[in-house]
Amino acid sequence: MTTATTTVPAPPATTAGGRAGPGRRQALLRWGFVAPAVLYMLAFFGYPLVRNLTMSFQSYTPRTYFTGEAPFNGFENWRGVFDNPLFTNSLWHTLVFTAGSLLGQFTIGLALAVFFSRRFPLSGVVRAVLLLPWLVPMVVSAVVWRKLLDQDTGVLNSALTGLHLVSSPVPWLSSTGVALAATVLVNIWIGIPFNMVILYGGLQEIPRELYEAGALDGAGAWRTFRSITLPLLRPVVTVVLILGFMSTVKILDLILALTGGGPADSTQTLGTVTYQLSFQQMNFGQGAVVGNVLILVSAVFAVLYLRANRSDFGQGK
Amino acid sequence: MQTARRRPPAPAALLTAAALVAVTGLTGCAAEPDPGVITVLNSATDIEHAQEQEFYDRCARRIGVKVRQISVPADQVAAKALRMASSHSLTDILDLDGSELPQFAATGGLVPLEEAGVAVTGMSAAAGTLGSYRGTQYGIARSVNSLALFYNADVLREAGVEPPTTWAELKATAKKLTRGSRYGMAFSATPNADGVYQFLPFFWSAGGDESRLDDGKGAPALRLWKDLVDQKSASGAVVTWNQQDIAEQFIGGRAAMMVNGPWNVPVLNEHKDLNWAVAPIPVPEAGRPPVPPIGGTVMTVPRTGDEDRQRTAAKIINCLNERRNQVDWGESRNNVPTRTSAAAEYTAKNPKLAAFAEEVETARSRTDRVGERWPVVSDALASAFQSVLTGRARPEAALAQAQAQAAADE
């Protein structure tokens, strides 16, 4: 290490005398360190991204896999997708699903995080139990929820009718009006642990003295939450919401296992439409179009995320 | 200078290393196939995989080769086969679902059976259409399944009714059998292959045409399903129940009758106290034959460019379709053999499943009219019955919408 540092000041002299030298070598070395990451990004993010974009302008069918031919067809795929009422509906469903899920997950997650930030007997155990939904594979949760939500034999309806909360069984997954709300409900259940854990971590970072000072100034619980907890938690909140957004907007597995996009396409999202177009109808071109829309939506939020990160962390706020 | 020499390699060296890794990785994929081993891609489950292997071994031994199966879940066979095709590593035999055959045949990647040397004489007409695309046969089914009406014989006897044969009888019987938490009838109306498969016997028996969904003939089938749900003889949850779910409802005594296929026989037989029987699917009017769909997988020979291997694959397929093997295979799967002589022997041995054998004679393949457009038509049909059952659209309007949806892609 010491030899390395002592040689570093040397380059200026050599560069002054010759043309190429350790200076250029240094630049190369820096690139050498960056190269693996760049190569990885190019191979696993850049290539698929560009491929998906070009695919959306091609007539890409099963035949392509055998012949390797995928003729360009201009905006035909894009027109086909944008003329399809299913696409507009699914865009709307995705929006409702994402907004509803985030609102529910975040509110309940935050409430639980605040609750568990006070120490009480067994709080650790209960918090660990609350993490369980996060550990269960999404498809497994969905299959179990499908049983729980069954109109005739589901536990939820038995409980609700038993408690006389509803007069007739709720058609959770079999009515076009309720199914989307039911999928949101399940997704909230799945997302609570993630929100809770991250927000709980954020809460631990807030210095205790601030609360003591607040208490001395006579601040009540709500005032303390609004004036101390929330402002100091802001960076964590942005992270949670934006990461939550990006994992929710692309939802596929949960919906496929829960409703399959039904009834009557009332739970079709951008994710399920891409799946249907690409892997059921084998219309890979149109599937790529919907995929691109999904990428674009995520990209907008990724930029927002980076900006929020810069302003929140960069300035040491 | 000493230290400088010890510095890590420059980007050029890194790039070369990365390229080397990539190249060796790629060549690894395109390894030469083992000449003594014929490969098969199919959708066998673990138990089926072992069963299949016995049949393959039986035939491969005779030819002096070995057979290796690659089994993936049913809904992933097509995607897997496409990936293999693009890397020129397709198996020698591709065991596809019949409804997926046209899309593969249309690519030109399958060898017509006649050219490959697979004998197709002596098979039922329905089996022929299941494996055909535009008049050429590319796939051969060893056995086919269909749908029929399963009923709980004890419940029907108690109520003093016979299994229904017409739609009017179906509605009346279902109503009569509905009591307490038990529905008279169960069917699957999920927005996927299950629901569409179940809708077709009603749609086709009514005279519906999947290439012209809006010709008005299929609407009564939608009305029948809607009526069954509206009169509470079937649960509104049918839009979420797949075929396995309704079998569970039937076994659990929550449905007196159900539409389902012969693959349920093993699980039904596990319940000794369940006295089940099978009748043909009820038809709109007495005297008309039911037109159920036939399903099952078809064996195809992909163009791998190696004619020797193609010939060996054809020999194995021919052996699997000999009368003896077809009967054994049909019995192991409770499916009807496609060779007419084998089907007769099978029916004689399995009178309980005679309804299926009888129906297969008038059954149709999902793709014989619309070919590779079937997946689009299937999605359109699913939207139609789902919107009718959930009360979003009237039958005629739903079918008009479905036709628009199916035609948008033409």
Write up this protein:
The complex is a heterodimer of chains A (317) and B (410). Chain A has helices at residues 2-7, 11-17, 22-55, 62-67, 76-83, 85-117, 123-130, 132-135, 138-148, 155-162, 179-205, 208-216, 221-249, 253-258, 270-280, 284-314. Chain A is flat. Chain A has 16 helices and no strands. Chain A has a single domain (86-314), classed as MetI-like fold (Orthogonal Bundle), CATH 1.10.3720. In chain B, strand 1 (37-42), helix 3 and strand 2 (66-71) form a beta-alpha-beta unit. By secondary structure, chain B is of the alpha/beta class. A five-stranded mixed β-sheet of chain B has the order 2-1-3-13-6. Chains A and B meet through helix 1, helix 3, helix 4 and helix 15 of A and helix 2, helix 4, helix 5 and helix 18 of B.
What topology emerges from the helices and strands here?
The complex is a heterodimer of chains A (317) and B (410).
Chain A: H1 2-7, H2 11-17, H3 22-55, H4 62-67, H5 76-83, H6 85-117, H7 123-130, H8 132-135, H9 138-148, H10 155-162, H11 179-205, H12 208-216, H13 221-249, H14 253-258, H15 270-280, H16 284-314
Chain B: H1 2-5, H2 11-29, E1 37-42, H3 46-63, E2 66-71, H4 77-86, E3 93-97, H5 101-106, H6 113-116, H7 125-130, E4 132-133, E5 136-137, E6 139-140, E7 143-144, E8 148-152, H8 153-159, H9 167-177, E9 183-186, H10 193-205, H11 219-230, H12 243-251, E10 255-260, H13 265-269, E11 276-279, E12 293-294, E13 297-300, H14 307-320, H15 323-333, E14 336-337, H16 340-349, H17 354-360, E15 364-365, H18 374-389, H19 395-407
Helix pairs in contact in B: 3-14, 10-11, 10-18, 11-18, 15-16, 18-19
